[in-house]
Amino acid sequence: MFRLAYVPGVTPAKWVNTWTERMPDVPVTLVAVPAAEVVGLLRNGGADAGFARLPIDRDGLSVIPLYVETTVVVVPKDHAVAAADEVTIADLVDDEVFHALDDTIEWTVRPGRPTFTRPATTADAVELVAAGTGILLVPQSLARLYHRRDLTYRPVLDAPQSQVALTWPTDATTDLVEDFIGIVRGRTVNSSRGRTPDSPAAEKPARRQAQKPAQNGSGRRAVPTGRKRRGYRSR
Hints:
The protein is an alpha/beta fold. The protein folds into two domains: about 1-70 and about 165-200, Periplasmic binding protein-like II (D-Maltodextrin-Binding Protein, domain 2, 3-Layer(aba) Sandwich); about 70-160, D-Maltodextrin-Binding Protein, domain 2 (3-Layer(aba) Sandwich), CATH 3.40.190.10.
């Protein structure tokens, strides 16, 4: 079994589907975890690897950055921002902007005006936006995840962006973890990296090796009688 953690907004389906095709005998258990808890879960052995949003405390962890998400502003549908296709931070200077405790966007200066409270989670902040008490800036995947019919969102062109990464405990880099790294990196099934020795794809080179002609005493392969030796050409 391979245990894969993921934070809200991340969709691991495409990698899991590839794993299932290549490793049908090793089931994947998905572990949904709040963004603020994924590092602790990995360090405590609650998952073999996980998708997290950077920045995180990397002590004892290996990290592979994957992709960057667009930052959007979530507002009520009757907000002035809803009339624009995109906005800048300067456009939000007079708005009260929620800053959830689980926010992973690195702000040099937080946009807008501070709100009366800091919600514990992004989901809580979205509820407060729907109540008309402020607006919220989040990665676009979270705006989609917590979408409500009475809210909308627009890209914020000059806002810092959030990055999603694959991470795992460095001291627990198992064969299965290497297999999953290979899938995330887009390696093919024939790649010699990122594969466990017991996987079906890994057995093919071994079978081919067993079928090679025996070598003669000089260390070169013996050429069967009646066949001409061909010169070796590197590819």
